[in-house]
Specification:
- The structure holds two protein chains of two kinds.
- By secondary structure, chain A is mostly helical.
- Chain A has two domains: about 1-55, no CATH class; about 65-175, no CATH class.
- Chain A has eight helices and no strands.
- In chain A, helix 1 packs antiparallel against helix 2, helix 4 packs parallel to helix 6 and helix 5 runs antiparallel to helix 6.
- Chain A is globular.
- Chain A starts with a helix and ends in an 11-residue tail after the last helix.
- The model of chain A has no long low-confidence stretch (mean pLDDT about 90).
- By secondary structure, chain B is mainly alpha-helical.
- Chain B has a domain at about 55-155.
- In chain B, helix 7 crosses helix 8 (about 130-155).
- The two termini of chain B are about 30 Å apart.
- The model of chain B has no long low-confidence stretch (mean pLDDT about 90).
- Classes of the chains: A mainly alpha, B mainly alpha.
């Protein structure tokens, strides 16, 4: 039990320090600390609204989708259809980029090819549908359309380049913890 | 966002009906993965919060607004790569920049680098892909984002 508590402090110690700093800033009306606290709240809300959902989906995906399916459709031998599937998967998602890393790790563990993992990340950063809808609202459909059209070949190329570069190297996607 | 929540709830319900044990095992796995990465994520969020204090959004807007030609493009690319601004702040910011007369090229470079390059999230990315590959991916994305932004500037 004691080692468990130690583990907790080692992992979350800096978060506690930060929380104490923010609390102290508020009680002493320290402007910089208060502002940093407000910023943190915005980012934290974004994370906490979307990531638990994302990890529920990741957990379900993990138990329901068999490895053979992923190897067959997204693996090294899956061909061009694999690209389409990972792009569609990425487009249906929402949230910040760091939410895509655990999905990428899961896909890789299930047998998704290196190329498709990075194409997934690229599509996630550029053409998620919820984000596009928002972008069209503020910057207009022409902006989003051009961005999507130009980004597509770019992130596909990045996927191919990284896969080519990593072909004969020992590369793996780790799951932290 | 609401659609995403509803879809998750629906899938979760379907999964529970189909196989309770399997669903619980999946939820447990998901929760474990979440808790494992949570400290690193909170660390990045703290970093980003401090960064946004040092360089607030209105200061960024002013920098982007002042820069013309290549200076504008370069500052947009650097700012976009370093900062981590959620879309719901970045797009309204972009709309303000459009109205205040900033060129589309500068805005496009800012938005594309913002989305494709994550300098502050590198420590997190490296936990999954290792430092070398993460740096490489971001460098390639930076070049790509710059290219996309510049092309958009020509057409808009």
């Amino acid at each position: 039990m004691k080692s468990r508590a130690n583990g907790f402090f080692r992992k979350f110690g800096f978060v506690l320090v930060f929380a104490v700093f923010i609390a102290a800033s508020w009680s002493t009306r320290f402007a910089a600390g208060m502002e940093i606290g407000r910023n943190f709240r915005v980012f934290f809300m974004e994370m906490i609204m979307i990531l638990p959902l994302m990890f529920i989906l990741i957990g379900l995906f993990d138990v329901w989708v068999p490895r053979e399916k992923i190897i067959r459709h997204l693996g090294a031998a899956a061909g061009h259809w694999g690209i389409l599937w990972v792009v569609l998967l990425a487009m249906l998602q929402a949230g910040p980029l760091y939410g895509a890393f655990p999905v990428a790790a899961l896909l890789w563990r299930k047998g998704c090819s290196v190329r498709n993992v990075f194409i997934y990340l690229g599509a996630f950063t550029t053409i998620k549908i919820p984000m596009l809808a928002f972008e069209v609202g503020f910057l207009g459909w022409k902006f989003s359309l051009l961005r999507g059209l130009f980004s597509f070949p770019v992130f596909i190329a990045i996927g191919f380049l990284l896969a080519f570069h990593l072909k004969n190297r020992q590369f793996e996607v780790k799951e932290p913890g | 966002m609401i659609g995403f929540s509803l879809a998750t709830a629906a899938l979760l319900a379907m999964s529970l009906v189909a196989d309770r044990g399997k669903t619980l095992a999946g939820l447990k796995k998901g929760a474990k993965m979440f808790l494992n990465i949570l400290p690193a994520m909170l660390g990045v969020l703290i970093l980003v919060s401090v960064f946004l204090y040092v360089v607030p959004a209105n200061v960024m807007t002013a920098w982007l607004g002042e820069g013309t030609g290549w200076t504008g493009i370069v500052s947009a690319a650097v700012l976009g790569s370093i900062s981590l601004i959620p879309g719901f702040i970045a797009f309204p910011l972009g709309a303000i920049l459009v109205r205040s007369g900033v060129s589309y090229g500068v805005i496009a470079v800012f938005i594309t680098t913002l989305m494709m390059v994550g300098f502050l999230t590198l420590p997190l990315e490296a936990k999954y892909f290792g430092w070398r590959v993460s740096l490489l991916r971001n460098a390639l994305s930076f070049a790509g984002a710059l290219l996309v932004g510049l092309l958009m500037g020509i057409f808009l």
